[in-house]
Amino acid sequence: MRIALINENSQASKNPLIETTLRKVVEPMGHTVDNYGMYTADDACQITYVKAGLLAGILLNSGAADYVVTGCGTGEGAMLACNSFPGVLCGHLVDPSDGFMFAQINDGNCVALPFAKDFGWGAELKLEMIFRQLFGFGHGNGYPPERVVPEQRNKKILDQVKAITHRPMIDILHDIDQTFLKETISGEHFAELFYPACKDEAIGAYLKAL
Predict the structure, then answer these.
(1) Cα–Cα dist 201/205, whole Å
(2) Rounded distance, CA 148 to CA 136, Å?
């Protein structure tokens, strides 16, 4: 699985800590991590939580990422922004049990974490435990065991609902404010990470043309 890390600007200084912790957990599992920044608070590309949502939508709908880890001060804004886009099912994770239950019950492809609220002493240990619970036990297996069948059924129903209520990502890219879109994909390493991994020719071609 290719996991993309996105940090919004208010918590950019924590990117190295989050990346190191994420890699420590998931790379031994065979997963790959692509760090889309922000890398420092002074980066030229300033990713707000709304841009984090747009970037998550681009990565997941193009196939350039299989999973997105993002967040903001509370995680709420990033979660709301991510869920604004088609093909993105984002959960808000506060503790390790959230990680396990979101993976098993909701089977999403994106998570938003609070990187300021309650992010104090031992934060890297909490992150490590969340990532182990999120990625270490598969996805969509249900919890508790007696709820597996209805939970898996409801997930399929939710996917069908989202397919109806959301527009195709390529249409959104055409209609969204183009300056906002250009700013979102102007990260230092966006091109070198995104284009080789992109599986959607229409999305890739449109963004490259910008």
Answers:
(1) 6
(2) 18
Helix (H, G, I), strand (E, B) or coil at 85: coil
| Chain segment 1-12, per-residue pLDDT in tens | 999 999 999 999
Task: Say if residues 1 and 31 touch (Cβ distance below 8 Å).
Answer: yes
Residue in the structure block whose two tokens are 């590309």: 45
Taken in order 70, 76, 77, 79, is the CA torsion positive or negative? positive
Query: Using one digit for the tens of pLDDT, what is the confidence trace for 155-200?
Result: 999 999 999 999 999 999 999 999 999 999 999 999 999 999 999 9
pTM > 0.85: yes or no: yes
C-alpha separations of 16 from 5, 40, 183, 194 in Å: 11, 9, 22, 20
Place of tokens 């604004």: 84
CB 67 within 8 A of CB 110: yes
